[in-house]
Structures are given as C-alpha cells and as structure tokens.
Amino acid sequence: MAYEALYTRGRPKTLSQLVGQEHISNALARAISSGRLSHAYLLVGTRGTGKTSTARLLSKAMNCDAVHEAQNSGRELDKREIPCNKCDACRNFDSSPDNVEFDAASNRSVEDVTRLLSTAYLAPLRARVKTFIIDEVHMLSFEAVNSILKLIEEPPPNVAFFLATTEINKVPMTIRSRCQVLNFRLIPQQTIAPYLLKLARRLNVALHEDAAKKIARLAEGSMRDALTYLDQCYAMADKEISLDDVNETLGLISDESLDEIIAAIMARDRSAVASAVTAAFQSGLAANAIAEALITRLRDREFELLARGEKNFAELDRIIDAVRKSTGEMYGSGIPDIILEMTLMKLVAPIPTLTLPPTTQAAPTPQPTVNLDAAKKIFYDTASHLGETDASFNTIPNKAVVTNFSGDTLTLTFKSDAMAGLFQKNLSKFEQAATQVAGRAIKFSVVVDKNMPAPVLQNLSESARNNLAGAMDIFHANDADKIND
After folding, report:
1. Is 372-452 assigned to CATH 2.60.40.1080?
2. By the 8 A CB rule, do 24 and 184 touch?
3. pLDDT tops 60 at residue 165
4. Does CATH place domain 189-250 in 3.30.310.260?
5. How many CB atoms lie within 10 A of CB 237?
6. In terms of Cα–Cα distance, which of 422, 397, 386 is closest to 484?
7. Is the pLDDT assigned to residue 269 strictly greater than 80?
C-alpha cells in the first residue's frame, strides 16, 4: 500500500479534533444539534487552517444517520459525535457520488462550473443532501461566479454549498452576502507543538519538545505545513527526531550558530563574526535565510531578557534594525552574501565619538571709533549756516548734545520733548544743510533723555566747564537749568 502523507492521515475525523478553531467547532456543533444548518457556507482563512476539513465534516454531518437520529429525538450532540464515522453514509462518504469536490483554481471557466453544477437539480442518489465543496472560489471567472449565484440564492431542495477561499476580498459581495461566513484563525504555536507531540507518540516516534516548537514556529499558523515538516523529518529520522534533525532535514541554521554570531557582535570581534558567518554560508544556507533566522533569534533573546526583568534592549534593537534593513537590500540583489557580511561588520565597528575641536576665544570685533568732534563740527556748522537765515536755529545747539555718530547718522539727545519736537519739525532742513556742510548725505536721529545734564554744560570745552563749575559754587547756583536759561 502506498504511503499516506501525515497531513491527510492527521485530518480531523470529528469536530472535536478540529485543532485551533474551537470558536467554529462549537458554533457548528450547536447549529447541527438544533438542525439550523445553512445551505451555503463561505470558509475563509489562510492555508492549512482547516477550511476544507471543516467542509468535509459538515458534509458528512448533514448525511450522518446518528446525527439525524439525535436531531429527531431532540438529544444534544457532543462534538465527538459529529459525525459518527460508523454509519454507512459516513463510511461511504469518500466514494459517494452525492459529495462533489471542485478545485476552482484549475476549473475556473463558466463551462467547467456549468458542467459541474448541472447535477445540482437532480435528487441525491444515496445521501440525504447533495453537497458541493468548491475550493479557492475566488479564482472563478466573473461569468462562472454569475452561473452559481442563482443556485446559491435559490438552491434546489437537499443541496448544500461549501465555498473555501484564502482571499475573501476577491470574492464578490453578491456571493458573500448569501453565505454564512466562517473565519478561520491562524493556529498558535502553543497549540501546534502539543498536537505534533501527540501525533508523534501515535507514530511511535520520540519527537523532542524543542524540535516540536521549532516546527510549530516554521508553520506560521498552518497545521498542514506543520504536518508536512514533521512528515519530512519522520521520513529522514530513525525513531527519534531532535532539534538537530529538524535543522538538518529542513535546511535551517542552528540556534548555536546564531548565538555565536550574536556573541561575536556583542564582543565587537570582527574575526569571530567573519568566522561564524562563513561557517553558516559553508553549510549551504542562503543569506536571507540566515538574516531572518538571526532576527527571530534576537527577538527570542529579547523576550527572555524581558521575562527576567531586564529593561535595556538598546544593543539588541540596534542589531535587529540593521539586519532587518539588510534583508530589504538583499532581495533583487546579486550579492546578498556580501550585503549581510558588511552589515554585521558595521555592527562590530566601534561607535565613533564626536570630538569637538578646542574652542578658541574669538578676538572681540573692534568697534568703530566714534569721532564726536567731527560730528559736533558738522552739527554746529549746520546750525550756524541755518541761523544766518533764521535766528531761531541758533538756540538749538544749546538745547541738544551730540551723543553718537555711526556711519552717516548723527544722534542728538534732547533734555525736553518740546525741543525735540521743534527739531523734528525742521529735520529735513537740517539734513539738507548738513549734507552741504559735510559734502555727503547726513541723517539725524533724535533721542530724549530727561535725566541728562544741561546741554550747555555738555557742549562747553573742559576748561570752560571747570570755570563755570567754580562760578556755580560761588553763587550757589546748583541748578543747571537756571544756568542754561
């Protein structure tokens, strides 16, 4: 007799054996017990999660003699009884002409579907219900979908449809709205590994627990993939399957090799990193496979540290980010090996520290020398020039002090707002006259400072100010405003 693959031998025989989909098996068990099964189901989920197996179980249950007896008597059925697998209908299910399984991926034309469904209007030959299991229904052509739409909407008596798909977004809404949708979840690793151990005991094979966990992780939520990996290891092993057997049979890098690479990176040892990566390449592993396995191993290490209460993951995160970026560069590249090697070498390189050059005290910018004497000469000559035509201008030099001369702008400071306002009214005349006196454009800026000493004292020469100060002491005239008047 030909060898039967594990994924077919391991198919569930009852709803209780549907692994990882308890939310579906419980709901279907209640619907079967109460006799409220629908005529059309749409089974949605990724590969290997039990869609076709569930459709076969439902098809069996609809024709199972024990199920119908329990429904008629009102007895609630246990999941282990659905179906019974003992009656004639269950035992002859695979060879029954009333059970039709159809692969829409290879028979997607309207002619194929029409030929298949032409028997839907005929009464079942042996079974109570004629069932149609259509796998990968999203692959049907637009015309083929329309051909089955009417059948699903208004089905003939004693006909049921089970449509399975991995891409529900490609199934037309007209089909989805006429079916009860069963969403199959990815099966957790914690569920797959114990099931593999249980199955291995039935096969009289000693499957190591760490090997079962490794297979469960590789399956990525697919029970069929897990059973296929186990079947491959079972064919190569001799009554015992260890983690090394799994790595060797499936072409995987061992955790020890990954730990060597990580330890060398942590130690910043270039030669150790080069040796570890070279050993991995010599074992025949592809660069992207090594990178993905390294990311997974780093993730495991980080979770182990987290379980121990560690909080500093900066170094592990740095390595994960660098290797993750390198995987994107490898795809489509002709040198993936070199990309991975250089990425790991950069991680080993010391982190450069930024050394700033010694700061030197910048020499202060020399401030331009203000020539107040020249400014005063321009101001007094301008006032004298204007005073020849208007005597009121002769009093301005006694009310203002030249305090700054920057560029071509001469700053005058007044003690009172009144005098500053008077000067502002004649500003244009002063600027025109000053331009003629200086031979270049001169601008005036006006400032008011009421705490400033009397302008008359400010504008006198030093010797004149000393003589005036002595006179003030003799006459006790300490009010500069009186002298100014």
Report:
1. no
2. yes
3. yes
4. no
5. 19
6. 397
7. yes
